[in-house]
Write a structure and sequence with these properties.
single chain; mainly alpha; two-stranded antiparallel ribbon; 4 helices; 2 strands; elongated
């Protein structure tokens, strides 16, 4: 049986990290007017380093009890950090809408790039399988 980890390398996990990061950024944007809400994000570089290391079992996808994949499972399995606010707010909310929109666009571009790489790798493999 073919091991997909050897074929696609770390990119399948990078795609999962980007998906999970998208949920954090979306939550930040959705709660930008919620008093006391603290903006959170995944430390992407640290998560990718963990995924690329030989001991990357901590980033393995987990199946929740109710079914369906939810990313990495428990929050403490990847480096989640609070954003440092650029300005103080009276209600304690640390979300900067403009910063979150930039982070969202960067994440979307990275997600699309990673997906394009995986798709091109898949196309190469299909050519090999078909003998073209």
């Amino acid at each position: 049986m073919v091991n997909l980890d050897h074929i696609f390398g770390v990119y399948q996990k990078v795609l999962s990290i980007r998906e999970e990061r998208l949920s954090f950024i979306s939550a930040n944007i959705a709660n930008q007017d919620t008093p006391g809400f603290k903006a959170r994000d995944i430390d992407f570089k640290a998560a990718v380093r963990s995924a690329a290391s030989s001991n990357n079992s901590q980033l393995a996808l987990k199946q929740p009890a109710q079914g369906g994949l939810t990313g990495f499972g428990a929050q403490d399995n990847y480096p989640v950090k609070y954003r440092i606010p650029s300005a103080d707010s009276l209600d304690g909310n640390s979300v900067d809408g403009d910063l979150e929109k930039v982070a969202l666009m960067n994440n979307v571009v990275g997600y699309n790039s990673t997906l394009a790489f995986i798709q091109s790798r898949k196309a190469e493999l299909m050519q090999v399988i078909k003998g073209e």
